[in-house]
Write a structure and sequence with these properties.
Blueprint (H helix, E strand, L loop, with lengths): L14 H6 L10 E8 L5 E3 L7 E4 H14 L3 E6 L19 H12 L4 E6 L12 E3 L2 E3 L1 H15 L5 E4 L6 H11 L6 E8 L6 H7 L19 H12 L4 E5 L5 H10 L4 E5 L1 H12 L5 H14 L4 E4 L2 H6 L4
This protein binds ligand PBG.
Length: 326
């Protein structure tokens, strides 16, 4: 007779039982697909450090969105890759309604009103300093930056997009943007705040994609210290009080504990950004044949959801959706 009364393996003995007791499941509905937009027509260039991810001009992006919608992806986060000649100290192009990013957003929403479009609110893609805030004497000014972010947010809201994503980490920006939107008749536009955004080494491929790396220094005076956990709660309290609709943790993989922390301390939906460097690591190892890319991609997304994320921004969205049975 077996001395064992409890045998957890019984609940693993068949595919049917394993599926029945499965605690976490990732679905395409959980995912947001980040897209990189460039000016022009018929433009398509692969990001060197992100195999399978392309910068697209709007005509090709419309095709990409159509394909993704067929696969069940309904939420997209569009980032602009801006040529150097259009960058300046104050990110003027970020609120010029005739600039290609805002024009493209209008086109996208017109063609796919059912798609949920998220935008990026931060100065870095348009800043000649490559920083998320206004730079003066080597310092990033907070309150002066808010004014620019407010103009940018309003210009984006006017295109008809659904969710604004302030990714800049200035103090008070969620409240400032919320107030600007509400005063201008955009009470329905949502804010997904980059709440706990860490000063991370995992963003480099994204900065390659947009050519948006800081021209001097680093982002440590506004993005959070990777060593800090309690500080994420302070940011979450502020963003919640200031009217955020979603709280985001970024990056995801090295910060699964922070995702869980916010999940346990907030009733808002928690988003996690599975960032460019996390994508690049898996792709590189898979290309070398060192990892099974598909399997590790799914395990990664699962881990982020299990940690407590309701929503995952991931460059794997299309690949994941393509691999799902209909
Ligand atoms: C900048 C921004 C960054 C990302 C999204 N918005 C990079 C940074 O803060 O330097 C990174 C996304 C990724 O790595 O996938 N506002």
């Amino acid at each position: 007779m077996s001395p064992l009364i409890q045998r957890p393996r019984r609940n693993r003995k068949s595919e049917a039982i394993r599926a029945m007791v499965e605690e976490t499941r990732v679905t395409t509905d959980d995912l947001i697909f980040p897209l990189f937009l460039v000016d022009g027509k018929n433009q398509r260039s692969e990001v060197g450090s992100m195999p399978g991810i392309f910068r697209l001009s709007v005509d090709l992006m419309l095709k990409e969105i159509a394909e993704c919608l067929k696969l069940g992806i309904r939420v997209f986060d569009v980032f602009p890759a801006v040529e150097d000649q259009w960058k300046d100290k104050t990110a003027t192009k970020s609120y010029d309604p005739n600039f290609f990013y805002l024009k493209a957003l209008r086109q996208i929403k017109k063609q796919f009103p059912e798609a949920c479009i998220m935008t990026d609110v931060a100065m870095d893609p348009y800043s000649s300093d490559g920083h998320d805030g206004l730079v003066k004497d080597g310092k990033i000014l907070n309150d002066e930056t808010l004014e620019i972010l407010g103009k940018m947010a309003l210009a984006q809201a006017e295109t008809g997009i659904d969710i604004l994503g302030p990714s800049d980490m200035m103090d008070g920006r969620v409240g400032y943007i919320r107030k600007t939107l509400d005063e201008n008749g955009f009470a329905e536009v949502s804010i997904m705040s980059y709440t706990a955004k860490y000063a991370s080494g995992f963003y480099n491929p994204f900065r390659d994609a947009l050519d948006s790396a800081p021209k001097f220094g680093d982002k440590k005076t506004y993005q959070m210290n990777p060593a800090n956990r309690r500080e994420a709660l302070i940011e979450a309290e502020h963003d919640t009080a200031e009217g955020a609709d979603f709280l985001m943790v970024k990056p995801a993989l090295a910060y699964l504990d922070i995702i869980r922390l916010l999940r346990d301390n907030s009733s808002l939906p928690i988003a996690a950004y599975n960032v460019s460097g996390e994508y690049a690591m898996i792709k590189a190892a898979a290309q070398k044949g060192w990892l099974d890319g598909d399997r590790v991609m799914k395990e990664t997304l699962l881990s982020i959801k299990r940690a407590g994320a309701d929503v995952i921004l991931t460059y794997f969205a299309k690949e994941f959706a393509s691999s799902q049975p209909n």
